[in-house]
Amino acid sequence: MKPVNPIITGIMQPFAPVKKNVDQKVSSSFSFGETLEKVMSTSSKPIISKPIISKHAEQRLKERGIAINSDQWQSIGEKLAEAGSKGVKDSLILLKDAALIASAKNNTVITVMNREEARSQIFTNINGTIVMDNV
């Protein structure tokens, strides 16, 4: 006789119960209210990451001698997230010395050029512009 497949027949063997030690108590140095307040205060601040730089954009940064420091990348990431929350998918980001095309949807910088180059360009397939001349 063949063994019966319990899934097909609907016959399930009960699992052995897991024994719990009732005598163990969980101690905490914080009350529930304090813990909840701590969690709420830290979780209400969104974590904005620096944008991902595509290989193409990285290559353009090197070729064109464009330097963007860590604080600037953080600001770009924040503005890109803000643009994304407003429905922007692809954006032109204008800095003092550079212009970037970025995907707000993917948080990725697609290409980079200096501002002089950007003056004579036509930008297509973008639905938002972020001007950050002070960065």
UniProtKB/TrEMBL annotation:
This is Flagellar protein. Keywords: Cell projection, Cilium, Flagellum. The lineage of its organism: Bacteria, Bacillati, Bacillota, Bacilli, Bacillales. InterPro entries: Flagellar_put (IPR013367). Pfam families: Flagellar_put (PF12611). It comes from Domibacillus aminovorans.
